[in-house]
């Protein structure tokens, strides 16, 4: 029995506690929300009163039964407060069907029940309990305010019949998804702060919603908010919104006037305020601060600059993607070309239709099949023809050339500034024989270039490095193992150092060259160069060397040079003067095309010589045959000549007349 003479029977236990007047306890999270609730028209008649509640006895074993005296009902006829009564269940409320306001704040209730008979209830407060599921409300069709904050609810459900709901407070629960509220067309205030939401969606149908509180969730994207015609206040503080694209739909909301985004990653960006104000010109407050016209103007200017920056960034992204696709296309065409070359080589080696090896895979190739494969490869190239077949790019101090067509860029009129800036020239997906033809142009076009890079260029033999001598000067050489099998040779670096000794190379494949490397290179290949130069005919040597080198060669051949140590001293002098030694100059590289031209020329000469000799032999055979025939016929012919002469001069007078007649005829 308390001071007011009220009694509550719960099974066999009794509660002796002084009833407290109804009040809204406003915490930090609920401040703005509950301040507005205090203005609700249902509260105006009940503030400042004290409930004198009388708990009567009940025959129920499980639920307590609540009864009030007639006097208590007269004082607070439609209002009942059971705040902080340590209730674990909702008591049975008899004879209170007319109740309009019911308060169960700060108890331990786990389930909503025993209130289905309160069909006139308008205000139900179950804040700070242990409720896990929304239930037992289907008959409360008149309910306007439902407060279920700070409970254990995981899902929004069973609100189908509460179509007149005006305020719904579900903050401080464990809700992961907004659902089952699209029918609440009268709802004005929805509080879902401090839940587990990640996406804001399923808001269609909330045509009267003016305030939405989503503070302290895990929201990273927002949808459907632009479909809310009456939304004015949206609270999104302390979520995971990181870009304006995540809240882009807010820009389409014409009614939104107040929004908070503080505590999100997006709020840390320099462009945050300007971008939001630029896209939401209707806002009056941002992060609880009033927006001035000066801020709007500055936001508009900053937003335009940001848009320009984004467009430029987007343009760069598109260029990078185009570059990536172009390089992929070039690489694909290169692979098709290499496969075709391998196929042709295999067919030339195997004329008997035996299995051939292409890129490590065995296949039995017939002539018809080879034509079919060639057709397939051609169609594949045509399918990629929409992309560029070559690419020229300047990255910092590096000129990157992709594809054979890129070599044509060396004939451009490069600006002095750009040409002087180039230090490295990189070749990719280009046949080395095609590169050889433009090497001499590099130093002319790019006077400061000192570094050559090769990747997927078919460097397959040491002899090809001889061609680099025409560059005149490089300090670094990089040969990528991809597409350059020569790198697998153990001594390739030493050969490069020996052949390009006059360049004074500093690095090969990023590794610094030491004096020991140079000495080793000389030991390994010095005799090789000497043999090459000594076995070459003098006229051939002169044709390979320039005018200055010819004079030096004549000087050496005349014996005026030093007898001993000439090779090493000559090499050292040449390194100082920037020229290559005579012996090294003999080591040249002939491209496949040039070699094929020479072979064709040799073939033509061979054919001519063969034809000429055949004609001579035929003519000699005819002469010999005629001589043999003459030898056989000559005795008989001689006899006949003698006989004819004897017969002719037998009559001297007749012979004389005949001779005179012949002479006369000849004179006439």
UniProtKB/TrEMBL annotation:
Cited SUPFAM superfamilies: L domain-like (SSF52058)
PANTHER family found in the cross-reference section: LEUCINE-RICH REPEAT-CONTAINING PROTEIN 49 (PTHR45973:SF8), PROTEIN PHOSPHATASE 1 REGULATORY SUBUNIT SDS22-RELATED (PTHR45973)
Gene3D superfamilies: Ribonuclease Inhibitor
Source species: Thinocorus orbignyianus
SMART domains in UniProt: LRR_SD22, LRR_TYP
Stretches the record annotates as Disordered: 560-583
Protein name as it appears in the record: LRC49 protein
Repeat recorded as keyword: yes
Keyword Repeat listed: yes
A Pfam family reported for this protein in Swiss-Prot or TrEMBL: LRR_4
Classification via InterPro entries: Cilia_flagella_integrity, Leu-rich_rpt, Leu-rich_rpt_4, Leu-rich_rpt_typical-subtyp, LRR_dom_sf
Domain of life: Eukaryota
Record key words, sorted: Coiled coil, Leucine-rich repeat, Repeat
Residue ranges the record marks as coiled coil: 291-324
């Amino acid at each position: 029995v308390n001071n007011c003479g009220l009694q509550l029977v719960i099974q066999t236990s009794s509660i002796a506690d002084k009833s407290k007047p109804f009040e809204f306890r406003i915490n930090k999270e609920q401040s703005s929300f509950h301040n507005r609730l205090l203005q609700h028209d249902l509260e105006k008649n009940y503030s400042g009163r004290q409930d004198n509640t009388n708990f009567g006895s009940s025959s129920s074993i499980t639920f307590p039964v609540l009864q009030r005296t007639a006097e208590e009902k007269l004082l607070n006829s439609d209002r009942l407060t059971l705040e902080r009564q340590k209730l674990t269940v909702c008591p049975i409320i008899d004879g209170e069907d007319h109740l309009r306001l019911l308060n169960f704040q700060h108890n331990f209730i786990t389930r909503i029940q025993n209130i289905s008979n309160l069909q006139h209830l308008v205000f139900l407060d179950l804040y700070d309990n242990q409720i896990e599921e929304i239930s037992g409300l289907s008959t409360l069709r008149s309910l306007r305010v439902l407060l279920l904050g700070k409970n254990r609810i995981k899902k929004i459900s069973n609100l189908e019949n509460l179509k007149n709901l005006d305020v719904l407070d579900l903050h401080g629960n464990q809700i992961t998804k907004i659902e089952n509220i699209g029918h609440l067309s009268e709802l004005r205030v929805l509080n879902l702060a401090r839940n587990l939401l990640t996406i804001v969606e399923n808001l269609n149908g909330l045509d009267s919603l003016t305030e939405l509180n989503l503070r302290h969730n895990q929201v990273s994207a927002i949808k459907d908010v632009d479909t809310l015609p009456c939304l004015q206040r949206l609270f999104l503080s302390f979520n995971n919104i990181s870009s304006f694209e995540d809240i882009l739909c807010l820009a389409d909301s014409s009614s939104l006037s107040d929004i908070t985004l503080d505590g999100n990653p997006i709020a840390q960006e320099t462009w945050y305020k300007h971008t939001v104000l630029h896209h939401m010109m209707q806002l009056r407050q941002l992060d609880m601060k009033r927006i001035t016209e000066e801020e709007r103007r500055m936001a508009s200017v900053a937003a335009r600059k940001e848009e320009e920056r984004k467009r430029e960034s987007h343009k760069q992204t598109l260029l990078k993607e185009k570059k990536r696709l172009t390089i992929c296309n070039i690489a694909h065409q290169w692979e098709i070309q290499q496969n075709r070359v391998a196929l042709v080589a295999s067919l030339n080696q195997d004329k008997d239709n035996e299995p051939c090896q292409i890129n490590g895979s065995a296949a039995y190739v017939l002539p018809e099949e080879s034509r079919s494969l060639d057709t397939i490869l051609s169609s594949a190239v045509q399918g990629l023809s929409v992309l560029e077949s070559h690419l020229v790019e300047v990255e910092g101090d590096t000129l990157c050339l992709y594809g054979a067509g890129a070599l044509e860029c060396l004939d451009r009129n490069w600006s002095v500034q750009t040409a002087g800036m180039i230090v490295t020239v990189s070749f990719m997906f280009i046949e080395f024989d095609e590169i050889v033809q433009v090497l001499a142009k590099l130093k002319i076009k790019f006077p400061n270039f000192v570094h050559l890079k090769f990747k997927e260029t078919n460097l397959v033999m040491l002899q090809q490095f001889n061609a680099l001598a025409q560059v005149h000067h490089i300090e670094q050489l990089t040969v990528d193992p991809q597409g350059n099998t020569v790198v697998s040779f153990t001594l390739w670096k030493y050969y490069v150092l020996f052949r390009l000794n006059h360049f004074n190379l500093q690095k090969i494949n990023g590794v610094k060259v030491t004096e020991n490397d140079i000495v080793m290179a000389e030991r390994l290949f010095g005799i090789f160069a000497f043999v090459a130069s000594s076995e070459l005919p003098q006229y051939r040597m002169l044709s390979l060397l320039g005018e200055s080198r010819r004079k030096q060669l004549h000087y050496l051949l005349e014996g005026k040079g030093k007898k001993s140590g000439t090779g090493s001293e000559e090499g050292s002098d040449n390194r100082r003067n920037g020229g290559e030694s005579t012996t090294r100059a003999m080591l040249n590289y002939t491209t496949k095309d040039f070699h094929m031209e020479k072979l064709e020329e040799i073939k033509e000469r061979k054919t001519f010589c063969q034809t000429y000799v055949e004609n001579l032999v035929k003519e000699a055979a005819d002469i010999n045959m005629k001589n043999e025939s003459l030898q056989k016929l000559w005795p008989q012919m001689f006899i006949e000549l003698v006989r004819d002469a004897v017969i002719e001069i037998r009559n001297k007078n007749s012979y004389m007349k005949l001779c005179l007649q012949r002479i006369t005829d000849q004179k006439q």
